């Protein structure tokens, strides 16, 4: 390994302009692809083939020409006009006429056409039209602003809502958030870097690497998106993690290079930097890449996309740190300390030598007390995790300023919380015409009346809704012929059964009193799946499926968390193996994993307090949903595990360096902390600024991830790295470096160049087999 890093150092020093020139070409080409990333990534990714939700959706789309992913609602509302007033009617008709000529619209149905009373709010001030779209997902989303222009009215308030419109608003909000965050983050990060390095030139280097990493990563994601679907949230995540990693790696490299230049030539300093900081960066990046690669095994597009984006940015960050940063350092060499700001900023020039070493000795003097206090604090912070609840990602993840969010709030206020997200029960007979068998219609009646009598249900729409008070006799007499003789009935029934097809399928829409993600609604949906044919014996001969929004969220959550323990174990195993190779120790990887888990649980606890219980939600500009977004815990765990390992590797590499030079365990820990704690703290502060800025975005998904990452980095760089690590290293003593003889022969020890002396101290305790 040392030969490789020496080669890279020599090549970067000798061919510095070639290295920089190649990266400038890569950056220029990448800038073109990065601009197209926003439009090539998708907002969906929550539907999972093979689930009951997906199966029911496919049947509805095929047999009833109704698909939730191809429908928008145009919502018409007036505080003064009634739906029956002529100006209100004219506004709806104008919108209907305009929409019917749009190339992406296949059908428009309004209250005035279908005559369904429930399409008018109880106060008669609101109604809606159902717009069935055609085209690809991207075409339907891009049609949103055009459709909104076509339905605008001076007489009534009109909004467009639905999955295509919501996805468009999410994509727009995500892009706006990204642009706003980048404009705020870079200046803040630059100021912090100036405070850390004291030099304007040195502070500018991590910014350059950050820009390169983000732009190249977005370009790579654009290329990948041409072959497979990627979520739009990968865009924000790639920018957030890419910028953080690039700055993190730059801090490690630049600080070590400046330190080495104090007593070496530029060439020697670069070689030494590559063999130490470069090596740490390589293994940190590989650990993060492999950990996140496990998440790409999830059969869920949004999780797979975000995981893949982090794999990409980690790879680009490592390549840039090893192939671009050394060339920049060689170009700048001693000019890296130019434009020194220490003389202009009071206190910045004051260096407190040995402060971190004294801190380390103070912690190690009372290791049990230090560990007890740190674990007590972390334990208290982690307690809320016991109450953690998960919820599906709905339109409520959007900022209140978006049209979809405003329309959803209006629909909930005027109609009820489930008007656009009912539970959908699909009944499918086995043979053509089998829907009209008397026992099947009897079953539909039994389930209809059962749902109407359930206190969790606001109203039910089914074939039994054709008359005000259906009876068993009406149900058993209902047939295709009776519908043909009743045009008013047929106009409604054609929406609920495939009358013009094989007459095998009907749908029942159950509108609940609470939202689609509420426990009460989800409970009803699960009961329907388990007991529909028990409650309605007439449906025993049919296939009954339960879909709708609540089913989608439930199935998504189940698919994500059922395999999570296995994938989590695989991530931990990968991390353990890499750290064992890196440190040539059996104990240090186990300790690192345990400390990472403790700090992550503490950050989860804070997330629960803020995002689930709503403490301080107004300060972050959102309204708590009473739970965390379903996939946030999975993503946070994997991302944080990789980032925490980054700091662990940086610190313990330096400790091991001193240990291999013959210093005692205690002295090695103190010296290692002295030379890395300042950089870890600075890196943590900058990462908190980067991630924290994303906590101020409008889309709740990104807000949760940004805030969770910022809190976790704060915990990791304080209580964990500068308290728990030195205290536990003191207690473990020589056991820190223990490897069983059997593994010692099998596990290769990675060469660290000239960091070790000719005589190596005993690296395992007496009798430690």
Quaternary structure: single chain
Structural class: alpha+beta
Mean pLDDT: 86
Q: State Rg.
A: 31 Å
Please give the largest β-sheet. 4 strands, antiparallel
Question: How are the strands of the largest sheet arranged?
Answer: 2-3-1-4
Counted by DSSP, the helix tally is 28
Helical content stands at 55-70%
- Give the N-to-C terminal Cα separation: 28 Å
Strand content: 5-15%
The stretches of 5 or more residues where confidence is low (pLDDT under 50) are: 752-769
Number of strand segments: 10
Which labels suit this protein?
10 strands, alpha+beta
What does it look like?
63% of the residues lie in helices and 7% in strands. The protein is of the alpha+beta class and 769 residues long. A 4-stranded antiparallel β-sheet has the order 2-3-1-4, sandwiched between helices. A 4-stranded antiparallel β-sheet has the order 7-8-6-9, sandwiched between helices. Helix 2 crosses helix 13, helix 8 runs parallel beside helix 10 and helix 25 runs antiparallel to helix 26. It is elongated, with a radius of gyration of 31 Å. 51% of the residues are buried.
Task: Characterize this entry briefly.
It contains 28 helices and ten strands. The protein has 769 residues and is of the alpha+beta class.
Strands, helices and their partners?
Blueprint: H1 2-14, H2 16-40, H3 52-64, E1 71-77, H4 86-100, E2 105-109, H5 111-114, E3 126-133, H6 137-142, H7 144-151, E4 157-162, H8 163-197, H9 200-225, H10 233-261, H11 266-295, H12 301-323, H13 325-332, H14 355-365, H15 367-382, E5 390-391, H16 403-414, E6 423-428, H17 438-452, E7 457-461, H18 472-477, H19 480-484, H20 487-493, E8 505-512, H21 519-535, E9 543-548, H22 549-561, H23 564-583, H24 587-612, E10 628-629, H25 632-660, H26 665-694, H27 700-732, H28 741-746
Parallel strand pairs: 5-10
Antiparallel strand pairs: 1-3, 1-4, 2-3, 6-8, 6-9, 7-8
Helix pairs in contact: 1-11, 1-13, 2-9, 2-13, 8-9, 8-10, 8-26, 9-10, 9-12, 10-11, 10-12, 10-26, 11-12, 11-23, 11-25, 14-26, 14-27, 15-24, 15-27, 23-24, 23-25, 24-25, 24-27, 25-26, 25-27, 26-27
């Amino acid at each position: 390994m040392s030969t490789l890093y020496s080669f890279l150092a020599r090549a970067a020093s000798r061919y510095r302009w070639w290295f920089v020139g190649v990266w400038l070409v890569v950056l220029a080409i990448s800038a073109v692809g990065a601009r197209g990333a926003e439009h090539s990534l998708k907002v969906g990714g929550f539907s999972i083939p093979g689930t009951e939700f997906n199966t029911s959706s496919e049947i509805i789309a095929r047999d009833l020409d109704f698909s939730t992913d191809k429908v928008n609602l145009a919502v018409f509302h007036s505080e003064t006009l009634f739906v029956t007033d002529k100006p209100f009617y004219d506004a709806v008709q104008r919108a209907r006429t305009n929409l019917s000529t749009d190339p992406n619209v296949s059908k428009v149905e309004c209250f005035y056409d279908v005559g369904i009373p429930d399409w008018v709010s109880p106060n008669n001030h609101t109604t809606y039209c159902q717009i069935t779209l055609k085209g690809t997902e991207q075409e339907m989303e891009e049609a949103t602003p055009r459709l909104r222009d076509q339905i605008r009215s001076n007489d009534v308030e009109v909004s467009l809502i639905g999955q295509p419109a919501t996805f468009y608003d999410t994509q727009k909000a995500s892009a706006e958030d990204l642009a706003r965050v980048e404009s705020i983050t870079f200046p803040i990060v630059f100021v912090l870097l100036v405070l850390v390095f004291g030099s304007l030139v040195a502070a500018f280097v991590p910014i350059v690497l950050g820009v390169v990493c983000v732009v190249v990563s977005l370009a790579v994601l654009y290329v990948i998106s041409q072959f497979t679907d990627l979520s739009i949230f990968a865009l924000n995540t790639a920018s957030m993690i890419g910028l953080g990693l690039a700055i993190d790696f730059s801090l490690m490299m630049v600080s070590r290079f400046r330190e080495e230049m104090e007593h070496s030539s530029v060439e020697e300093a670069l070689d030494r930097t590559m063999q130490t900081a470069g090596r740490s960066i390589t293994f940190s990046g590989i650990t993060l890449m492999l950990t996140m690669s496990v998440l790409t095994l999830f059969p869920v597009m949004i999780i797979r996309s975000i995981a893949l984006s982090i794999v990409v940015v980690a790879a680009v960050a490592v390549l840039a740190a090893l192939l671009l940063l050394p060339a920049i350092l060689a170009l700048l060499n001693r000019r890296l300390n130019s434009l020194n700001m220490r003389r202009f900023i009071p206190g910045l020039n004051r260096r407190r030598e040995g402060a971190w070493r004294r801190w380390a000795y103070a912690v190690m003097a009372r290791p049990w007390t230090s560990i007890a206090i740190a674990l007590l604090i972390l334990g208290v912070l982690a307690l809320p995790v016991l109450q953690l609840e998960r919820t599906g990602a709905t339109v409520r993840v959007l900022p209140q300023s978006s049209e979809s969010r405003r329309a959803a709030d209006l629909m909930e206020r005027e109609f009820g919380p489930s008007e656009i997200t009912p539970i959908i029960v699909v009944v499918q007979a086995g043979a053509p015409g089998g829907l009209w068998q008397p026992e099947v219609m009897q079953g539909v009646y039994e389930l209809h009346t059962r749902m109407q009598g359930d206190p969790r249900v606001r109203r039910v729409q089914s074939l039994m809704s054709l008359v005000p008070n259906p009876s068993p006799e009406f149900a058993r007499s209902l047939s295709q012929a009776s519908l043909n003789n009743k045009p008013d009935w047929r106009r409604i029934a054609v929406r609920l059964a495939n009358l013009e097809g094989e007459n095998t399928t009907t749908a029942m829409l159950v509108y609940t009193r609470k939202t689609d993600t509420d426990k009460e609604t989800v409970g009803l949906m699960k009961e329907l799946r388990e007991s529909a044919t028990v409650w309605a014996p007439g449906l025993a001969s049919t296939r009954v499926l339960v879909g709708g929004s609540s089913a989608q969220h439930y199935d998504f959550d189940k698919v994500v968390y059922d395999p999570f323990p296995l994938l989590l174990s695989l991530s931990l195993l990968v991390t353990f193996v890499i750290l064992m190779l890196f440190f040539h120790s059996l104990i240090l990887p186990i300790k690192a994993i345990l400390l990472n888990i403790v700090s992550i649980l503490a950050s989860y606890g804070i997330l629960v307090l803020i995002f689930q219980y709503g403490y301080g939600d107004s300060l972050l500009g959102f309204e708590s949903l009473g739970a965390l977004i379903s996939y946030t815990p999975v993503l946070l765990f994997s991302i944080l595990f990789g980032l925490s390992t980054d700091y662990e590797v940086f610190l313990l590499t330096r400790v091991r360096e001193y240990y291999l030079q013959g210093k005692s365990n205690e002295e090695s820990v103190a010296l290692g902390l002295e030379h890395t704690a300042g950089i870890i703290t600075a890196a943590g502060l900058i990462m908190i600024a980067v991630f924290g800025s994303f906590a101020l975005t409008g889309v709740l998904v990104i807000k949760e991830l940004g805030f969770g990452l910022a809190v976790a980095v704060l915990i990791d760089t304080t209580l964990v790295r500068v308290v728990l690590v030195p205290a536990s290293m003191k207690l473990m003593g020589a056991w820190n470096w223990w490897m069983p003889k059997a593994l010692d022969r099998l596990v290769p020890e990675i060469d660290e160049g000239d960091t070790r002396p000719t005589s190596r101290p005993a690296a395992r305790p007496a009798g430690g087999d």
